[in-house]
Every structure is written in C-alpha cells, then in structure tokens.
Amino acid sequence: MYQMKRMARRVAGVAALGVxxxxxxxxxxxxxxxxxxxxxxxxxxxxxxxxxVAHHHALKRMNGHIAEDGTLRLPIRLNQTDLLExxxxxxxxxxxxxxxxxxxxxxxxxxxxxxxxxxxxxxxETLMLSVQNGDASQQESLKVHFTRESENEIRVRNAExxxxxxxxxxxxxxxxxxxxxxxxxxxxxEVPVELDAVLVDR
Length: 202
What we know:
Shape: elongated
Radius of gyration: 23 Å
Order of helices and strands: HEEEEHHEHEEEEHHE
C-alpha cells in the first residue's frame, strides 16, 4: 500500500509539472508572412505648374517577428518597393543601394494579446512606432486592428486613416533620389498609407 501511494504521488507530481510547463510550450511565435504583408501608399506629385497628380505605390514583402519581450522590428529596403519596377534598369552606382535599409520601424506588442484573441474576434490596440533613420528617431502612434482569422493567422490593418510625413520622406537622400528619377520633384506633405498584413504562428 505504501509503495502504491508513493507511486501515485510521483505520477501526480509529473502531471503537475506538465501543466506548469504547458503554457511555455504552447506560446505562439508570431511572424509576418512576407507574401501577404504590404503597405500601399498614395504619393501626390506637385508638378511645376502646381497641378496635383496622385500615384499609388506599394511596400511589399514585409518581414519581422515578435520577440519574447514584444519587440517587432521592420527593416524597410528599397527593393521592397515597386519603385524599382517603374525605374527599370538602375544606374550602376544605384544598384548597391537596393538592399540598403531606408529606415527601420520598431514597436512593442505583448504577444499574450495575440495569443488570447479568440478565432473570429477582433481587437484594436494603439502601438507606438519608432521610425529610425540613422541616429535620428521619430515617434508616432498608430491604432491597429487585429482579427484572428484562424488558429494560426491574424490579419492586421490600420484602424484609422494615417499618413506619412512627405517632408521627412524627401529628407531621406535615397528616397529623394529615387522619387526624382520618377519625375517627382515635389510631393504633398501627407502620404496616406494602408496597412494589410498577416501574422502567422510558425
């Protein structure tokens, strides 16, 4: 009888350890799906005559994952944009710039917020974005809408209208050069953007 009780206590102890360890094993590793994550932007060119002409562009193949501490880093490179497709063959001196980071966007999001979102439900979170250009950094807030479409997929869209600062874009030397090659000598101060991304549990 004593041996049976001792064995029962051991089994109970192992089961308890399994229950404690389960949340760690089941924690999701949320990553952006590059094939389905992009941003569409509308750049309004101001011509020499003062006319305004809208041009639609896209930033594709967004790539990044949410670390255990909730940090999400999104490096943005020139070859992720459709600008290169419109430019065609680049001059030799520019080819080395295509894989250069134009900027890096960093934000924080508690992974548990995503883990706890039921399938078919949505929630809105306000994220603080840090846009880093070299030594300079700009802080922006963005309301983001998360919808859990399946057990392993969450769609992400901006929950309100948002625009980038056209003046800041033109201050980036590489961006200004590329836009100039497209014929955009001046653009509007507001560049509306639409986020459509998919987080997947890898």
